[in-house]
Amino acid sequence: MKERIYFLDNLRTLIIFLVLIFHAAVTFMAYPPEWWYVFNKDTSLLFTFTVLLCDVFMMPVLFFISGFFTPLSLQKHPVAVFIKIKFIHIALPWIIGTLFLAPIPSYFIYKNFGGKSAYREFWLSADFWQKIYSQAHFWFLGVLFVFFLLISLFKRQILSYLPSSICSRRSFYPVLVILILFPALGFFILNLNYGVNEWAHPGHILDFQPVRIVGYAVYFLVGIAARQKNWFSSEGYMPKSWLWVVCMLISGLLYLGFKLAVPDPAGIYKIIYALLHSSYACFTLFGVLVVSIRFLNFETRISKHFSTLSYGFYFVHLIILIYVADAVVKYPSSVFIKYLMVLFMSFILSWLASAVLKNLPLVKKVF
Question: What is the DSSP code (8-state) at residue 1?
C-alpha cells in the first residue's frame, strides 16, 4: 500500500483542531478542574459535556494514526536514522516546549492560587518543579517519542509478538477485544492507586495520566499492526459500516450518563467505568474512521495546507489560547459569545504562528 491515505491526514488535522475546541471549552465548563489555567465566572454544562466526551478519544486516535504511519518510516530508514529523525521532529520540540513554554500554563495556576513571585523566579523555584510541575500539552510528544524509541530498538521482538490474526480482514474480532479489554484492564488496575485525572511525572522526564498510558500503548501498537495488515486497502480491513457510528453514539451516551451519575466511582463501579471508558474510545476510533473514509478521503490545497501546519498548530495552540482566554473572560458578555471569541482568535493566531514556524530557517525542518 503505497498510495497516500488522505483521510488519515485530514482526520489527524481535525483531531488537532478538536484539541483546541476541547481546551477552549474547559475555561467555560461547569465544574472545571481546579488546576485549570483560566476560569470564566459564567459557565455552561454544554461545555462540560464537550470536555467529558472529547477527553476520552482524542489522544487514542492520534496514537493510532501515529502507529499506523510508523512501519513505513521504519522500512525506509535504518534504526539510527529513524531515531535521529524522530529526535529532530518529536523529541526536540518536546524538550524545548517542556522547558520554556510549559511553565507558562503552570504559572497561571500558580497565580490562581495566590502566588506572588515573578515568572522567572517561579520557573526556577520549587513551586514549579515540585508543586505544580507539568509539561502541558507537550506530554504527548514525550510519550510518543518513547514509543518510537522502543519500537525502533526492539522492533523485531515487538512486531513478532503482535498476533498474526490481529487486524486481519477475516479475523477482525481480536482487535476489538484488545482495544476494549487491555486498556480497560490497565485503567482499572492503575486506578486502584492513581486518580482518574491524576498525572504522574517520573523523574520530571515524562508526564502522563497513569490510568490511560496502557491504552495509549495499545492504540499505538494496533496502529502498527493495522498498517502491516494493509488496512484501508483492497487487501485489508476497511471500516465502512455505519454501525460503528451507531455504537460510537450509544457508547458515548452510556459513558456520559455514567460519568454524571457516578462522578467518583468506587468498588465495582471502577470496573464499569473502565469498561465504558475503553468501549467508548474504541467505538469512536472506528466511528470517526468510517466518517473520514466517507467524507475526508481527498486532498485539496486547503486540506494540504492545514495538514502541513497541523503539527506547529498543536505546538503553539495552548499557550496562545491561555493568553486569549485570560483577556476575553474579563469582559462582560454571554458565555457562548466569549467562548466563540476565544476559539476564533486562538485558531487564527495559532494558524498564523504555525505558518511562521513552518517558514523560519532551521525551525521549518522541525515542523
Answer: -
Angle in degrees, CA 219, 225, 229, rounded to 5: 140
Cα–Cα distance, 148 to 67 (Å, whole number)? 9
Q: Which residues pair with 44 in a beta bridge?
A: 29
Nearest CA to 12 out of 94, 69, 51, 52 is that of: 69
Q: How far apart are CA 345 and CA 340, in angstroms?
A: 8
The backbone torsions φ and ψ at residue 162, rounded to the nearest 5 degrees and listed phi first, read: -70, 120
Contact 317, 352 (CB under 8 A): no
Residue type, 255: Y
Q: Residue 219: enclosing H or E segment and its boundaries?
A: helix 210-228
Chain centroid offset of residue 224 CA:
17
Res. 2: pLDDT tops 80: no
Amino acid occupying residue 216: Y
Q: Is 201 helix (H, G, I), strand (E, B) or coil?
A: coil
C-alpha span between 107 and 124 (Å, rounded): 11
Question: Given a cut of 70, is residue 106 above it in pLDDT?
Answer: yes
CB atoms closer than 10 angstroms to residue 5? 19
pLDDT number for residue 164: 58
- pTM tops 0.90: yes
31 backbone φψ class: left, alpha, beta (φ>0; ψ -120 to 50): left
Please compute Rg for the chain using Cα positions. 20
What cell was used for 172? 477482525
pLDDT tens, position by position, 291-312:
999 999 999 999 999 999 999 9
The residue to which cell 485525572 is assigned: 197
How far is it, in rounded angstroms, from Cα 109 to Cα 128?
Answer: 10
* 3-state SS, residue 208: strand
Task: Name the nearest CA neighbour of 73 among 162, 147, 173.
Answer: 147
Q: How many secondary structure helices (H) and strands (E) does the chain include?
A: 17, 0
Query: How far apart are alpha carbons 40 and 43 in whole angstroms?
Result: 7
Comparing CA positions, the residue from 288, 213, 300 lying closest to residue 249 is 288
